Amino acid sequence: MKKTVFRIVSIVMLFVACIFLVVALSHPELGRVFYIGELKIGSEIWRAFYVLYALVMVGLFVASFFVDKAKAEKND
Question: What total number of domains does the chain contain?
Fold first, then answer.
């Protein structure tokens, strides 16, 4: 039961993340340019952050399928 609930939550989170990424990448004008010292954080860097975010979300989703297997093998 607990495993199923966590899988459903992770699928919903991945779905919401995908919607966020589609909207964010489709409308770069929604982001703001800001500066950290002399470093300008513009749309190019925002896109890199979005791609990194997508990779982390997909990686965590995939890892959720292997955590139980690793624990089961460790307990054997």
Answer: 1
